[in-house]
Specification:
7 helices; alpha/beta; about 140 residues; globular
Length: about 140
């Protein structure tokens, strides 16, 4: 797996995720596996909580720069994950649904290092919300 670049997580169940965390902990003890983890630059999260369930994975990926969120719940503003996201993530793709509107009011708190953002809007957002989201990102993300 030396060329592994993307990890995609689809609606992780607690049991599957615990097994993945155990395996990743074992991998971090193996130098060859560390090399494989070092090549991962993209994490694609579909329908999952970042906090608690995916936080460990984000922590062990040293070269993570690209985050794809599809109906994923972001961590709370008090989470230990916030500084890590701010530091690591340079590219962000978001599939927007009405549940993610909260993110856009505080996007600079989560992703202050982002240089590229792509949105895929859900039909539930009205035109006004879309323009507000785009304006907020352009205003509050200094590296765009």
């Amino acid at each position: 797996m030396p060329n592994l670049q993307v990890i995609k997580i689809n609606n992780p169940s607690r049991d599957n995720f615990n097994m993945m965390v155990e395996n990743s902990s074992k991998c971090s003890q193996d130098k060859r596996a560390d090399h494989d983890i070092n090549t991962v630059t993209t994490l694609d999260i579909n329908c999952g909580k970042m906090e608690n369930e995916i936080e460990h994975l984000i922590n062990i990926l040293p070269n993570l720069k690209y985050l794809i969120l599809n109906d994923s719940r972001l961590p709370s503003m008090t989470s230990d994950l916030i500084p890590i996201l701010n530091k690591k993530i340079e590219r962000l793709d978001i599939t927007c649904s009405y549940t993610l509107e909260i993110l856009f009011t505080n996007i600079n708190m989560y992703f202050s290092s982002v240089k590229y953002v792509q949105f895929t809007f859900d039909f539930t957002l009205n035109t006004f919300s879309r323009s507000e989201i785009i304006l907020n990102c352009l205003t509050n993300l200094p590296n765009l």
